[in-house]
Structure formats: structure tokens, C-alpha cells
Design brief:
100 residues, alpha+beta, four-stranded antiparallel sheet, 2 helices
């Protein structure tokens, strides 16, 4: 987990999509999770995948399928995330500093 502008962001490698153990060099899928702005009023999920917040379908595809061994795709997704969180359109809740 990292914190950016008091927003908790979870990132990690989740799977290869093969229902098998990782093999060397595969890398898995890089995932970014953000606080769910609809929780708890409209959703029981506390976190949502970042691609659910993206409206542009081309950008959404770029951040939805990122392979962990593709450094350029990860860097691109992190720049998209930063731009999103810095924009006034971001609906992500900031966590009070005493709760971090």
C-alpha cells in the first residue's frame, strides 16, 4: 500500500490468468485498487479496481490489462493514476491522517 494525497492505494501482482502457480518470467497481472467512493452507502466493497474509474475506453484497456513484467505499461498506468488523482474529476475519498 502507498499513500498519495491521503489516498490509500493498493498495488500488486495478482495472477497469470492460468489458474496455475507463477512461472519464472511470467510476471502476472499488475493491479491497482482504490477506495470505493460508494462504500458503505451503495456498495459493500471497500476497494475498487482503478480501471472502473476510467471513462475513456482506450485508457481503460491500458490500465485493465497490465502485465507485471512490462515496465513501460506499469509506468504508463502509474502516470494515468497520478493524473486521475490530481484531477478535479477524482471522486476518491481522502483518508484522515489519524486513520493512516
Amino acid at each position: 500500500m502507498i499513500v498519495y494525497h491521503s489516498i490509500q492505494i493498493d498495488m500488486g501482482i495478482s495472477s497469470t490468468g492460468k489458474n496455475l502457480q507463477f512461472n519464472i518470467g511470467e510476471g502476472g497481472t499488475f493491479e491497482i485498487l482504490l477506495p470505493n467512493p460508494n462504500n458503505p452507502e451503495k456498495s459493500f466493497m471497500t476497494r475498487r479496481f482503478f480501471h472502473h474509474f476510467i471513462e475513456d475506453s482506450r485508457v481503460k484497456e491500458k490500465v485493465k490489462y497490465i502485465f507485471g513484467k512490462d515496465q513501460k505499461s506499469i509506468e504508463s498506468a502509474l502516470q494515468i493514476l497520478k493524473d486521475f488523482l490530481d484531477s478535479p474529476k477524482s471522486t476518491i475519498s481522502r483518508v484522515p491522517k489519524d486513520k493512516l
